[in-house]
Amino acid sequence: MDGRIILKAIFFLVLITCSMTNAVLDAHYYDHTCPQAERIIFEAVHNASINDAKVPARLLRMFFHDCFIRGCDASILLDSTKGNQAEKYGPPNISVRSFYVIEDAKTKLEKACPHTVSCADVVAIAARDVVTMSGGPYWDVLKGRKDGRISRANETIGLPAPTFNSTQLIKSFAQRGLGVKDLVALSGGHTLGFSHCSSFESRLFNFSTSHEIDPSMSRDFGETLKKKCPKHNKDRNAGQFLDSTSSTFDNDYFKRVTVGKGVFASDQALYGDFRTKWFVESFARDQSLFFREFVASMIKLGNVGVIENGEVRLKCNVAN
Ligand code: HEM
Ligand SMILES: *[C@@H]1O[C@H](CO)[C@@H](O)[C@H](O)[C@H]1NC(C)=O
Ligand SMILES: *[C@@H]1O[C@H](CO)[C@@H](O)[C@H](O)[C@H]1NC(C)=O
Ligand SMILES: *[C@@H]1O[C@H](CO)[C@@H](O)[C@H](O)[C@H]1NC(C)=O
Ligand SMILES: *[C@@H]1O[C@H](CO)[C@@H](O)[C@H](O)[C@H]1NC(C)=O
Ligand SMILES: *[C@@H]1O[C@H](CO)[C@@H](O)[C@H](O)[C@H]1NC(C)=O
């Protein structure tokens, strides 16, 4: 075959693949069916965030967990049923809370435009809203996701663990079609929120035969964390904010990682591997670059495993 024909064929294949992966989602999906959808969601999220400063971080993390397990299909919102323990009861669910905010928005949406806006879209829009509200960027959320009917606690083992090294993290993201840049940019979500001791205490005591504290962590920071999480810690609420401005969406997280103050081994690992270190340094230096790349990666994350043959749930915690 002549080279030009092959090139043309490749060109069309690429075109087809691109349009296939974007076919479902659309920024204007509810323009005619529920033009007030985003305003209703914003109001519910905003109101809840004013009453409880923990809400923004929780809703951002909810979106990540939802998309990583079975795709962005609101499986994280479903309750357990007889004989099936739901995803939200899987071990890593610690701190994934504030489900009531999504329910509140959904109840108002059902009144305004019945059976129209999927719970998966509510989660995606809420995640954007909390980022913007916290001082981060704004972007148009693509919509048109459908809600799934399956939710299994045992599938949460598919989430990356805070003990993961860079190779494991890169693999976990690649399995969802996300690249190394997406991994680093999205880890910047740790500019918001809090962690319990249990998620990082293995770095503080008897880390390895030669090191009591994880040597990738700054010594000062290690001592600070040990004070917050003493060995026979009884306070189950004890822990550490993920960056020093934990309710502001900024690039402080990356600055901290460059000085050994990433809270999780998985945060710090991004600085210890040449494949990811360059991105960490770039984002630490240039906040607007981080914002642009975070937006691009959130849009990609929002496309993971989107289903077409699902339903629009009437209540987010039960399948229709
Ligand atoms: C790269 C792999 C990731 C790992 C291993 C990881 C792990 C964790 C862990 C262990 C916690 C603390 C849970 C607790 O002890 O309460 C946490 C919190 C959090 N994560 Fe991640 N995460 C990752 C990626 C992400 C991504 C991609 C986002 C969003 C874009 C995100 C957003 C958050 C937020 C906002 C919190 C704070 C939650 C709160 O304050 O309630 N994480 N993460
Ligand atoms: C705002 O939040 C409070 C507390 O969560 C709730 O009682 C109230 O109904 C909410 N108001 C609106 C307008 O959503
Ligand atoms: C998380 O899972 C534990 C059991 O693994 C359960 O006791 C807890 O209620 C769950 N939390 C939420 C918010 O679903
Ligand atoms: C989870 O459990 C279901 C049955 O309840 C099983 O079919 C599935 O393979 C399990 N998945 C994983 C990841 O263990
Ligand atoms: C990362 O962890 C995996 C699995 O535990 C291990 O096989 C691999 O050698 C580790 N890679 C690095 C770079 O530490
Ligand atoms: C520390 O870990 C080593 C194995 O790595 C173990 O033999 C030792 O008993 C541990 N020490 C304490 C105090 O837990």
UniProtKB/TrEMBL annotation:
Record's signal peptide? 1-23
Q: Where in the cell is it found?
A: Secreted
Residues carrying the site annotation Transition state stabilizer = 61
Keyword flag Calcium: yes
Cofactor(s) in the UniProt record: Ca(2+); heme b
So where does Ca(2+) 1 get bound?
Answer: 66, 71, 73, 75, 87
Alphabetized, the UniProt keywords read: Calcium, Disulfide bond, Glycoprotein, Heme, Hydrogen peroxide, Iron, Metal-binding, Oxidoreductase, Peroxidase, Secreted, Signal
The record's free-text note on cofactor binding: Binds 2 calcium ions per subunit.
Q: Where does substrate bind?
A: 160
Q: Does the keyword Signal apply?
A: yes
In its UniProt record, a GO molecular function of this protein is:
lactoperoxidase activity
Role played: Removal of H(2)O(2), oxidation of toxic reductants, biosynthesis and degradation of lignin, suberization, auxin catabolism, response to environmental stresses such as wounding, pathogen attack and oxidative stress. These functions might be dependent on each isozyme/isoform in each plant tissue.
What the record says about family reads: Belongs to the peroxidase family. Ascorbate peroxidase subfamily. Belongs to the peroxidase family. Classical plant (class III) peroxidase subfamily.
Q: What is this protein called?
A: Peroxidase
